[in-house]
Design a protein that fits this description.
- Helices cover 41% and strands 17% of the residues.
- It has three domains: 2-91, Alpha-Beta Complex (DNA Primase, Chain A); 94-203, DNA primase DNAg catalytic core, N-terminal domain; 214-330, Dna Topoisomerase Vi A Subunit, Chain: A, domain 2 (3-Layer(aba) Sandwich).
- The chain is an alpha+beta fold.
- A hairpin with a 2-residue loop joins strand 7 and strand 8 (186-194).
- It contains 15 helices and 14 strands.
- Helix 3 (68-76) packs across helix 4 (80-91).
- Bound molecules: zinc ion (ZN).
- The site of zinc ion (ZN) has 9 residues, from loops.
């Protein structure tokens, strides 16, 4: 066990892990020592030191320190074993990540070759080709991915492991619009929205990744959080490029950390207004959690029964939506 842990720590240097999660550091003077803002507490002056040679960190602000696994425990609020599992997952995906990228490229190629797919995008109010391309949207017609990937030399075992092919040997995604899910610059999953009568939402087994397109959203002083990728797509199309998406109302720990990685960030929660109040309740819980870590969360109340997608489909304009943002209030 301890040998495995040493091996794990060697393969993911602490500094590299931190940088992959957007920690910016400066040389601290001593050889191989770096300093930056502490990711573990609200830090205004850099007090978090990393010794890249020893693979250890120490924060003079909150007094915490240790190795990579200790950092993950504190950063993601996970017990020891799950922290190790999280790190193993970070290591694993190289071939899987490449496979997902190749799969997505194939699905993107299919999108404009199937009129039912482009019709569906129009039906959801998405028509700007630039946005469709930027979001990386593709289409899985079903029944032809396995042959395509076999042609690239991917072994069936890997296709089964990632869940792209099910145990009956069929494509897992069939008649679905596909969006890529990334984390720290790597593709970790695919989301498929059914265009037919099958269950609407589908992800491959494993992590749903970080917040959607977070790299391009994180630098805005205010972010809009939605629960569906079509909500995000229509908002981007209407000019709200500071919109991100958690795919569902439940934020994973890494997603929550992304949203709260900067004190003072303003977050507009634009979740669905469900009749059973599920969206409203999720909004309140999330707003409370965010407030606890210094993020100002405003709850956007769209007209009853609407989510951002349906609201724009019903004819709303960017100005209408802006009005709801302005009327939003903190808890
Ligand atoms: Zn600290």
């Amino acid at each position: 066990m301890s040998e495995d842990l040493e091996y794990l720590k060697q393969r993911i240097p602490l500094l590299e892990y931190l940088q992959r999660h957007n920690w910016s550091a400066h040389p601290a003077g001593a050889a191989q020592e770096f300093v930056g803002l502490c990711p573990l507490h609200r830090d205004s002056r850099p007090s978090f030191y990393v010794n890249a040679h020893k693979n250890l960190f120490y924060c003079h602000g909150c007094g915490r320190g240790g190795d990579l696994i200790r950092f993950v425990q504190l950063f993601l609020n996970l017990p020891f074993r799950q922290s190790v599992a999280h790190l193993e997952q970070e290591l694993m995906p190289a071939p899987a990540s490449q496979l997902l990228e190749q799969t997505l490229a194939f699905y993107q190629f299919q999108l404009h070759r199937h009129s039912e797919a482009t019709r569906y995008l129009e039906y959801r109010g998405l028509h700007d080709p630039t946005i469709i391309e930027e979001l990386g949207i593709g289409y899985a017609p079903g029944g032809n991915l396995r042959r395509h990937l076999a042609g690239w030399g991917y072994p069936l075992d890997l296709l089964l492991d990632t869940g792209l092919i099910n145990s009956h040997g069929r494509d897992a995604f069939c008649r679905r619009i596909i969006f890529p899910c990334g984390q720290a610059g790597r593709m970790v999953n695919l989301y498929g929205r059914s265009i037919g009568s099958a269950f609407p939402h589908r992800l491959l087994p494993g992590s749903k990744g970080g917040l959607f397109a977070w790299e391009s959203v994180r630098d805005f002083p205010a972010a809009i959080l939605v629960e569906g990728l079509f909500d995000l797509a229509v908002l981007w199309q209407a000019g709200f490029r500071n919109t991100t998406c958690a795919i569902g109302t439940h934020l994973t720990q890494p997603q929550f950390h992304q949203l709260s990685d900067r004190a003072g960030r303003l977050v507009y929660l634009a979740l669905d207004q469900d009749e059973n109040q599920a969206g409203q309740q999720a909004s309140h819980e999330l707003a409370q959690r965010l407030a606890n870590v210094g993020v100002i969360a405003y709850i956007v109340q769209l007209p009853a029964g609407h989510d951002p997608n349906s609201y724009f489909l019903a004819g709303a304009t960017a100005a209408d939506f802006t009005r709801f943002l302005q009327e939003a209030r903190p808890l």
